[in-house]
Structure formats: structure tokens, C-alpha cells
Design brief:
The complex is a heterotrimer of chains A (119), B (148) and C (189).
Chain A: E1 3-6, H1 10-22, E2 28-31, H2 34-43, E3 48-51, H3 60-69, E4 76-80, H4 85-93, E5 98-101, H5 106-116
Parallel strand pairs in A: 1-2, 1-3, 3-4, 4-5
Chain B: H1 4-19, E1 23-25, E2 38-46, E3 50-56, H2 58-69, H3 78-97, E4 104-106, E5 110-113, E6 118-121, E7 124-134, E8 137-146
Antiparallel strand pairs in B: 1-7, 2-3, 2-4, 2-5, 3-8, 7-8
Helix pairs in contact in B: 1-3, 2-3
Chain C: H1 6-21, H2 34-53, E1 58-64, E2 74-81, E3 86-92, H3 94-105, H4 114-135, E4 141-142, E5 146-149, E6 154-156, E7 162-169, E8 175-181, H5 184-187
Antiparallel strand pairs in C: 1-7, 2-3, 2-4, 2-5, 3-8, 7-8
Helix pairs in contact in C: 2-4, 3-4
Classes of the chains: A alpha/beta (119), B alpha+beta (148), C alpha+beta (189).
Chain lengths: 119, 148, 189
Amino acid sequence: MKVLVVDDSGVMRKIIVRALNACGIKDTFEARDGVDGWTQFQATPFDLVLTDWNMPEMSGLEFLKEIRGSGSTVPVIMVTTEGEKGRVIEAIQAGVTDYLCKPFEQEDLQRKLDKYVAV
Amino acid sequence: MISTEDILTITENVFTTMIDSPVELDNDESDLAAHAPITGCVQIAGEWSGAVLVQTTGDFATQAASKMLMLDQAEVCIEDRQDTMAEIANMIGGNIKSLVPGPSTLSLPTVTTGEDFDIRIFGTTVENSVAMTANGQQLKVIVCRGCE
Amino acid sequence: MTEMAGQDILAEVLQRNSSLFQSPRETQETKDLPEGIQTCVEASTVQVFKTMCGIDLTRNERIDGRCDAFNFDASGIVTITGATQATVAVRFPKQLALACTNALLGKTSDRIDEEVVDVIGEIANMVVGGAKERFAAPNLTLGLPLVVTGSGHRVLMPPQVNILSSLFSSASGDCIVEIGIKPSADSRE
């Protein structure tokens, strides 16, 4: 199972990758912004994408729209500080699969991953 | 791109107006850390995001505070130097803000001092860093631009 | 594999927000006061350290002004601009910064390196982001996190700023959160 983690924060990428590893997922890929994420997404068939919202070059929302615009139905989890109702609705309308607000407990992330990760 | 000429013009304007001190470009990129450095920082948020850092020596901050606050150098206390650096960073940052696409807002300034410190601003890259001298002291203005 | 419907996602986030902000969410009457901001920042600080690092912080006292009684090794600073202009500095002793890094990244280090700096910036960003959500004032923009490292460094705010300090203790060391707020009459743009 291939998982793409997109976040401009190296720390946040490491936290998420660590949680993925704890779920038994070793095949993880990291991207530092939406553009990097979209480039990798087009080159590799991913089974799950976790993306931040606020990132340079291309935001997580724009990245999500690119993914859905390509016809892909891959699960995309938005991992973000954007917890306002309007923002969540915007993400839902763009086709987000699930949503996790920062800060989160390790178990919250684990629970989300368990739903989408079939090891 | 904020050019070296723009940064020099703005810095010169602030320093000649406020403390009657001419400013010149300098090739000496030697480390300010050895000279009790003091750094003023403001951020610009909005259509253009980034930060402006003004670094100089403790001695020059004292000279600037003395001129701006009309005090003898011996009377200048650490708070005076910090307030002066905050104001200088605010003025240089405010002028740079007028050169970048708006609308945007200027943050409150912060001033950092210490024997040996590092500053990192997340999500930015250095757009331009200009080394200058004023009254024979090192002065550096760094413009960092948000990656967005 | 389960997919969540849109309304389930929204309900979950709103449920999380309501449990997060049930107390202390500032009322319209109090939210313009500096103490309102301080309460929001304190609640967010405790929550971020607890949820992200598993570290229980206890707020010990509030000081009206700067607290120079301690030397810190690292500071994570985030500015707020808009209707309220403020700067929040989360100040760490080395031991606490290393404990947070260990909790978040599983990395043991004896010095403040790049990864520790990343963690400090991330924590400061989440503290202020969470406080902004709690404060619920419109049109506030957060600046980019700035991290200062160096033993005994000082981070100062300009004299026209009111400074409120909150002192916290934990098993991994004490920390201080300083909030500098420009009086609102001057901060409206």
C-alpha cells in the first residue's frame, strides 16, 4: 500500500509517517507542497493521500481539486488547522474523504488511518 | 523581487532622517555574532507575505538610540536600544511593504538580543540580504519572502 | 474501506470544535479584552502540549508584563495581524524542547538541532492557531512562525505593547507564554 503525505512542515510529515509506520505501512512518500504532491501523484498510483491545507505553491485544497479533476477516487484525508465550518464545507465540496484537525492525538490519527489502511 | 538598490534607498532614508547617519553598501559579510548583535524583525502578511530583519551591532544600536532619543550614549539602557531597533525595523519594514503587492499588514516588531542566537522564519526563503555600514558599524537588512 | 459522507465529516469536526471550545470560549463581551486573548492562548497551549506531546502543563501564575526571571533556550513566535495586533512567544527551556521532540518524533537528542527547531515552530503555530479559533474574532491573520534559539536570548516587544505572561510547569520543565497586544484603539486599520 502506497501512501502520499503532503505537508510543508517536515515535522508534521514525520509525525504522520511515524503513525503510518505504526500501522504497518512502510511504503510512504513525502511531498513538501501541493505542486510536489501533484507531480508525485501523477507518477505513482497511491492508495491513500494525507494532505495539509495551507502550503506554498499549491494549497491542499487546490491539490485535492486536481486529484478529483483527474477522475481519481483515491481516499484523501485533509490534516489541517482549518477547523472552521466554511472551510470544512469547502473541502467536502471539493471531494475530501475525511478530515483531521490539528492538533490531534496520536490515536485520532491512528483511528483515521485504520479506516483507510488495509494492511 | 526587492532589489539591493531599493533596500539601500529605504535604509539610507530611515537612517539619515532619523539619526543623521549615512549608509553605504559593504562587501564585508563577516559574522555579526561576534559584536553583541541585535536583530529587529517585522512580518508582512497579506497578498505578499514575508519578513524583514534588520541586524546590527550592539554599539550601533546604542548610537542610534542615543540619536533618536536624544540621550548621551552613557545614558542609553538596554530597553532604549531595543525600542530603537523595533522602531527602525518597523520603518524599514513599512517602507518595504509599500513596494510589494497589497493589501497586506505589518506585524508588531520583535527584537532579539543575546550572546549567540539564531533566527529562523518558517516557510520563507531569503529574497535579498544587503550588507551595509553606518558610522563604521555593520548593518544588514534581510528580506525573506514566504514561499506561497 | 469506509468513506465518510460529507455531513458526517462536518458533524465530526463541529463536534470536535464544540468539545474543544466549550470552555473557555470567550463571549462577545469579554473577547476584546487582553485577558480574553490570554485565556484562549493558555487553553490552546495546554491542549497542544497534551494532545501532541502527551505533556501535562499546569498554569501556575500570570504576570502583567515580561517575566525575566528565567533563561530560555528557544522561543517560538507567531504574530497576529488584523483587528487585533498581537505577538505570541512560547518560550522553552532546552529540556522541554527536547522532550517535545522526543514525544513527537521519537528522537532523542541532547542539543537543539534543526528538528527541535522544527518542532518548536510547529508547536507555536498550533498554539496560536488554536487560540485564534477560540478567540473567534474575524479577519485575524497569523504570521509565519519564527524560532529563536540560543541560551539566554531575549525576545522583546515594543514599548507600546501590553505584555501578559503565563507561567506553566511540567515534569519536563517550565515554560512561559508571553502575549504582546497592541491597544485596540491603535490597532484598527
